[in-house]
Amino acid sequence: MHARVAFYKLRSGTFDEVVRMVEAPGGLLEIFRESPGFQSYELVEAPAGLFSVSHWDSSAQAEQANRSAATWVAEHVENRIKLVQSDIGEVVLSSSLASATH
């Protein structure tokens, strides 16, 4: 499993507005869900900014997601958020309550 992690700073508006746009039909979440290798997606609001975390079967799929995200952001929310950093890596440890109880 591979993860794509991106960190964004808010330029204008609110995080809630960005979240609604990501969730809307044609939004980034829909694009990711329709992409091969997609496993999960989280959007985390933190005092420093907004973190986007997605999980993919392969590094190549995570790289494609990175390109898809960059295109979507440029076309839909570039006036609201600015990409500060994005990276892809292999997940070396993952745990959840659901996997711990099975």
What report would you give on this structure?
With 102 residues, this protein is an alpha+beta fold. Helices cover 36% and strands 35% of the residues. It has four helices and four strands. The chain has a four-stranded antiparallel beta sheet. The protein is globular. The model has no long low-confidence stretch (mean pLDDT 92).
Distance between the termini: 20 Å
The main sheet orders its strands as 2-3-1-4
Number of helices: 4
Largest sheet: 4 strands, antiparallel
Structural class label: alpha+beta
Q: What's the SSE pattern?
A: EHHEEHEH
The averaged pLDDT comes out at 92
Strand content: 35-45%
Helicity range of the residues?
25-40%
Q: Which parts are unreliable, with pLDDT below 50 for 5 consecutive residues or more?
A: none
What is the alpha-carbon Rg in Å? 14 Å
Coarse morphology: globular
Question: What's a quick, concise take on this entry?
Answer:
The protein is an alpha+beta fold and 102 residues long.
Which keywords apply here?
4-stranded antiparallel sheet; 4 helices; 102 residues; alpha+beta
SSE layout and pairing:
Layout: E1 2-10, H1 15-23, H2 28-33, E2 38-46, E3 49-56, H3 59-76, E4 81-90, H4 97-100
